Amino acid sequence: MRRLIICEKNHAAQRIAFILSNYTQKRRSVSGVPVYEFDRDGDEYTVLGLRGHVVILDYPKKYNDWDSISPKDLIYAKPEKKVDASAARIMNVFKDLVATMDEVVIATDYDREGELIGVEALEQTSFKKISRRAKFSALTKGEIERAFSELTDIDYRLASAAETRQHIDLVWGAALTRFISLASGQLGKDFLSVGRVQSPTLALIVAREKEIKEFVPIPYWTVSANLKKDEEFRASHSNGSFDNKDKAQMAVSNAKKVKTAKVKNASEKENTEYPPAPFNTTAFLAEATKRGLSASQAMKIAEDLYTDGYISYPRTDNTVYPISLNLKSILEKLKKSEFAAEAEEILAQESIRPSRGKKSTTDHPPIHPVDAAKKQDLKGNRWDVYELVTRRFLATVAPPCISKKTIVNLDIGGEPFISEGYEIILPGWRKYYPFFRVNEVKLPTLLEGDQAQVQKIMVTEKETQPSARYTQGTLIQEMERRGLGTKSTRHETIQKLYDRRFAKGVKIEPTESGTAVVAALEDHVRLHDEYKITDVKMTSHLENEMDLIAQGDRVLADVVEESQDMLDDIMTVLEKNKKEIGDDIRKALRAQHNLGDCPECGEGQLLEIRMRDGRSFIGCSKYPECRRTYPLPSGMLVLATDQKCDVCGAPKMKYVTKGQPPMIVCVDPACASAKKERYVGKCPDCGNDLMAIQSKKGKRFAGCSNYPKCKKVYPLPQMGKIVPSDEPCDACGSPIIKVWNQKGKPPWVLCINMDCPKKEKKKAAKKS
Questions:
Q1: Euclidean distance between CA atoms 401 and 244, whole angstroms
Q2: Within a domain: 159
Q3: N or C terminus: fewer CB in 10 A for the chain?
Q4: pLDDT for 93-124, tens place per residue?
């Protein structure tokens, strides 16, 4: 029998071929497309990797004319399926191979999108023979062998649910984006993106920002005491806080009347702190974003680690390890990793009882390591993600943490005070998962009737605080709670908000245009009490409908028609308020692009201007009367500030680059203050200044300020703050710099010349 296995990508195809052939596969190129072939148990196998969705859903070309086709015309227009031009060669090879096969096995990722990728590829052929499905959660030998020994039927309902999402998102995104862009005059590359999930998510960010700005802080007062018995400790007034300053001062006055505090009673209690739940996608992304990664970066790295066979499939809702998962086997593998000592300790337990979360599904297990890796195998963020996943797994199979809580009630001048201590007795799982910070507070031994010396009584005025801004991690958690998007799409939705400049910052703030789009939709588009365009109800309702399709309780056509009718009602209201919506958004965009007063003419405003090729610069609004311009660097986030340069009067901008501390610098690169911030050292060729420069791709390098007369350049470390030392290298004359990467650690001192003779000597010494 001749079998064709189709995978989602070439990397996965290569790995599956390796496993099933026991590394005896042969690779050949068919029209430039890699194909893997081998024999197994008397059958001939061919493995082909696709490139994700090879078929795209889009409108016919006639609907691309924004001038003649209104947004409302898109609602009931019928999209067409066509092979993606970039995948045409792969599909031609696929069709030729299918024609010679007796069976096709879909081995794409087992979820909605993966099922659709396989089904849509098959639908482009006339194949009528046997089609099967291989379900696996890790690209390991055991998992792949099991999957191919237990082939199942293709789940067409699951694929239909994914296709429904494609259809609905296309219609909503195209119609709403076209309307908002036309209404506001933002066309071409400056179009404004609106979407079924994107807009309610943006509305959450805007609502949180509004809550913060409208928050009225309420003052309150706390009273505390510094005490001593053998060693110092602190106690707080048992009231917690006072809403009246006079009452707080009265408590302070009473407490100050005495020199000793009397222990009324003291108690100790041991607590069992159970391990955290295993990682599902949402929990993983929430923790990864705390480590400094964006949600989309973390997911991309996790997908790569999965394809490389290091971790299990990273798109899962499950927080309960299935009984079939051999936890001890995973720990045995980890004995060959950097976590060998930890794995040995956990294996030494009499039994392993993993923690359990609240969600249990049957598609994929929680995210866990499936093979050993060492730090030299995985560089940079890849290791960080692998370590996070591995440490979480170790924590889930480790024993509980045992802690001791001490509560001491005291009397100071008739006022009740309380002191609480917390100590870890046995770290348990905390030893393996240090990412949950804990502050231990040790108290001296205090018994009923003991006395402690009063050293100081203090009153502190505080204010209530508003809710914190979302981070990418907390926003993903909120999206899940509200039913917005899926585990596979939430991180992509958030990234779109950044890419479309609707959101900014690590602690997410809406931009003026993001706020304006939400305000315009909320103020001018109200259907009825049940649904509105920025409300999560409409989106979560459609999400539930797609779940029902996967379960076989609804069909694509009915759900798509329901969504079209919803959108038709929305567009009717939008059209009635088109002018007001456009005016509101244009006003906000002007404010967003306004970077301050022009120091040249004093009349115009400095605006960020985007060119057709995507590059941006700063120019005066009084152009052509005033031709003042400033360049904007590529590869970094540029934010306006309220500050002006003390040297030249131009605005100061905040430049944010991954791996480097934000810099607030004069926007004029020729200004002495800006040069000082970017100075690296002296050029050894001409003696002029070497300046830190950002390339178009965001890479940092040092270039001579005398360019183009002097073209001296050096690569620079991409992470950390660079501080010039003003010392030339004694071997080559290039500048010596200090690179600060982590707080509390000494800087990395190096010569910036990659070809420095000293470095060559070190390399030669290592080789020998």
A1: 40
A2: no
A3: C
A4: 999 999 999 999 999 999 999 999 999 999 99
Query: Is residue 590 domain-resident?
Result: no
Cis peptide bond N-terminal to 747, omega within 30: no
Is 59 an annotated catalytic residue? no
330 contacts 370 by C-beta, under 8 angstroms: yes
Among 439, 463, 487, where does a domain finish?
A: 463
SS3 state at 479: helix
Quick one: tokens of 362? 């049957």
Q: How many CB atoms lie within 10 A of CB 639?
A: 16
The letter for the amino acid at 459 is: V
Whether residue 116 is found in the same domain as residue 15: yes
Distance, in Å, from the CA atom of 249 to the CA atom of 245, rounded to the nearest integer, reads 6
Highest mean pLDDT among 15-24, 600-609, 677-686, 695-704: 15-24
Q: Give the C-alpha separation, 378 to 332, whole Å.
A: 20
The answer to pTM > 0.85 is: no
What is the C-alpha separation between 526 and 523, in angstroms, rounded?
A: 7
The total domain count for the chain is 5
Catalytic residue among 110, 313, 321, 432: 313
Which pLDDT score, from 0 to 100, does residue 532 have?
Answer: 64
Cα separation, 489 vs 484, whole angstroms: 9
Determine the Cα–Cα distance for residues 293 and 299; give it in Å rounded to an integer: 10
Strand order of the β-sheet with 663-666 is 637-644, 651-656, 663-666
The predicted-structure confidence for 432-450, as pLDDT tens digits, reads as follows: 999 998 899 999 999 999 9
| Residue-range definition of the domain harbouring residue 372 | 281-399
φ, ψ for residue 720, nearest 5 deg = 95, 165
Mark whether 210 and 234 lie in a shared domain. Answer: no
The answer to whether the bond into 633 is cis (omega within 30° of 0) is no
For tokens 């609707």, the residue is: 502
CA 558 to chain centroid, in Å, comes to 34
Q: How many CB atoms lie within 10 A of CB 353?
A: 14
- Judge if 429 and 560 occupy the same domain: no
Work out the mean pLDDT of the chain and round it to a whole number: 90
Structure tokens at 40: 């197994």
Q: Are residues 28 and 141 in the same domain?
A: yes
Those residues whose C-beta lies under 8 Å from the C-beta of residue 460, and which sit 6 or more positions away, are 221, 222, 223, 224
Contacts of 63 (CB under 8 A, 6+ apart): 69, 73, 74, 77
Task: For helices 512-524 and 578-593, give the axis angle rounded to 10 degrees.
Answer: 160
